[in-house]
Amino acid sequence: KSPAKKRRVSVVLVAVAIAAASCAVLAFKAWDLQRSSGAAAANGAAEVAVGRPVGEKRPKTADTALALTAIPTKNGGNGAVADDVVPECPGSPWKEDENMVGTCPGTVKKYKGSPPIHDAASCARVCCDSAECVTWQFRRDVGCLHGPDTRLGMEKDGVSAWCSDHPPYRWSGQYVLERSGGKVTNDRRSTVCNLKTWNPREVEGQCFGLGDVRTERASESAERCMEACCADETCGAWQWQKDKGCFYNKRMHGCQDASNPVAFEPFVGRRKFLPSRKYVDKSGKPWKQVL
């Protein structure tokens, strides 16, 4: 071939290569734009799912009204893993370093307002905005609970209403005396106080009204607890749990339904801090929940 023809062929080959490269660049840009748009849409959907308008910045400081706080996980730690988040309550701050994980019988009751509440964050917000609400809890089987001030764990100051400071446990326990209208209708000592006929699994849900933990010996086992109760003529019911010990008294009430497995999952909840409270135990010493 002549030198002129060779130059023309080379020019054509270069032009073809440049065109191919340009097409590849355009294809990559189109793919990248589509990928970015999809990610932005997913991110926007995630923002809407947690109730935040698309494009609004997430709160970063504790002073922000809806700053999100990690909820203690089931193993007790304040880890980053949490399905629910608790919005802060600037006007009436939640009491620090505690989570209302246990049962609160009596005054903390099902929220009946409108619209219905289906998540912990909404339950907290509505309580925050209510002057009557001091304590709130949420669990998927019972929903949102609201109530006035309560004592927690070993606190002895303040109101009579009380909440457990630990997640619900399975207990051993039985009724020794059955009552109706304040009177004993059935004395069961002959069977309940006999190791051959007793049934320590009769009442596995936590009950209330049993008072403070009993002696170290009675707390050694369910058998010891039963024997201690049966040795007391006034004892009408007992419960034992390996980490909590032995409890017995004339009667017990508010027993948790043990047939529902979800009933043994922890609640999520908080109390508003009240300056009038000292949050002390029976010795007058400050008491704090162990998370």
Account of the 3D structure:
- The protein has four helices and 13 strands.
- The protein is elongated and about 110 Å long.
- It is an alpha+beta fold and 291 residues long.
- 27% of the residues are buried.
- A four-stranded antiparallel β-sheet has the order 3-5-4-13, covered by helices on one side. Strands 8-11-12 form a three-stranded antiparallel β-sheet, covered by helices on one side. Strands 1-2 form a two-stranded antiparallel sheet.
Give me some keywords for this one.
single chain, 291 residues, alpha+beta, four-stranded antiparallel sheet, three-stranded antiparallel sheet, 4 helices, elongated
Beta-strand residue fraction = 15-25%
How large is the count of helical segments? 4
Radius of gyration: 31 Å
Strand order of the largest sheet: 3-5-4-13
Largest sheet: 4 strands, antiparallel
Q: H/E element string?
A: HEEEHEEEEEEEHHEEE
**Structural class of the helices, strands and pairings?**
alpha+beta
Q: Percentage of helical residues?
A: 10-25%
**What overall form do the CA principal axes indicate?**
elongated
Q: Detail the poorly predicted runs.
A: 36-83
Number of strands: 13
- If you average the pLDDT, what whole number results? 81
* Terminal residue distance: 88 Å
- Quaternary form: single chain
How are the SSEs ordered, and which strands pair?
Blueprint: H1 3-49, E1 68-70, E2 85-87, E3 109-110, H2 120-128, E4 135-139, E5 143-147, E6 151-152, E7 162-163, E8 172-175, E9 177-180, E10 183-187, H3 189-192, H4 222-230, E11 237-241, E12 245-249, E13 268-271
Parallel strand pairs: 6-7
Antiparallel strand pairs: 1-2, 3-5, 4-5, 4-13, 8-11, 9-10, 11-12
